[in-house]
Amino acid sequence: MEKDNNKKTGGSLGLFTPEMIQALAPNEVFVFGSNLGGFHAGGAARAAHHHFGAVWGQGVGLQGQSYAIPTMQGGTETIKPYVDEFIAFAQSRPDLFFYVTRIGCGIAGFIDEDIAPLFSAALALDNVALPKSFYDILTK
Prior knowledge:
With 140 residues, the chain is α/β, with parallel strands linked by helices.
């Protein structure tokens, strides 16, 4: 049964992922789109590398206060397994709060309508904030 996102309490930055994140509480994680090689040179990946502990050369998973989801290797069908892995990880870590950025909607060239459906299961999680654009697509 899906929970209504309006009943979530959100993290220190609110119910939805802000457009810009400059600081996180110790238990919060910045979720960003990456490439499999972990070359965090642009967009949210660059911010993750410079501010939230993303490791150069690691393209998947938790690293510092960031979590990488590869988005540059093909279509949405190649991204979905990584999103599913992230959702399972978030379910296993209720002690952490995850801010999902608009992964894939920058350098990778996808649009919100392509990526948001991959995160539908995240609506049921109290410890995951999605971009408002993803939430609006998932709840219309």
